[in-house]
């Protein structure tokens, strides 16, 4: 009952299931890692290089990494590029309107906004952790792939 948690309660409740499923899959299905130890959380961030040079710039931006200009650049380069944003209504890790705000403010021609689809689910941050939302996510992503498939009938 402290002021702040020393861990993520959501992660603590479901991580063991994901780690167990991963270990089972890589060992039994992929036949990999018999003598390996899977470490779901290791402190790599202290070694991670967060510098990112946005498109058209000569050097890394002096703020935290933002790849939204990269997405806008990709959409301008390929005006047929389709994007799907999926999110949970009850996401406590990412502010609900943040994704919408970022997408609506991409530095690109306004007509490319029509290439972005938004889908939301009765779940939290990890949509797939809620079974009903997982089914809807699956169906929406499958439909998106079929709608945007440029290779028909092969």
How are the SSEs placed, and which strands pair?
Blueprint: H1 9-29, H2 68-77, E1 83-88, H3 98-104, E2 116-121, H4 131-148
Parallel strand pairs: 1-2
Write out key terms for the chains shown.
mainly alpha; about 35% helix; two-stranded parallel sheet; 4 helices
Report on this structure.
The protein has 154 residues and is mainly alpha-helical. It has two domains: 40 residues, no CATH class; 93 residues, no CATH class. Helices cover 36% and strands 8% of the residues. The chain has a two-stranded parallel sheet with strand order 1-2. Helix 3 links the parallel strand 1 and strand 2. The longest helix has 21 residues.
């Amino acid at each position: 009952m402290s002021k702040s948690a020393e861990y993520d309660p959501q992660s603590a409740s479901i991580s063991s299931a994901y780690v167990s499923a991963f270990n089972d899959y890589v060992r039994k299905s992929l036949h990999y890692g018999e003598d390996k130890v899977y470490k779901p959380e290791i402190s790599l961030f202290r070694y991670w290089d967060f510098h990112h040079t946005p498109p058209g710039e000569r050097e890394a931006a002096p703020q935290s990494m933002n790849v939204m200009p990269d997405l806008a650049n990709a959409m301008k380069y390929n005006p047929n590029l389709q994007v799907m944003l999926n999110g949970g209504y009850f996401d406590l890790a990412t502010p609900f309107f943040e994704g919408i705000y970022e997408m609506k403010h991409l530095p690109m021609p306004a007509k490319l906004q029509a290439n972005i689809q938004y889908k939301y689910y009765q779940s939290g941050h990890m949509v797939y952790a809620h079974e009903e939302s997982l089914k809807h996510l699956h169906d929406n992503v499958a439909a998106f792939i079929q709608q945007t498939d440029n290779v028909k009938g092969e």
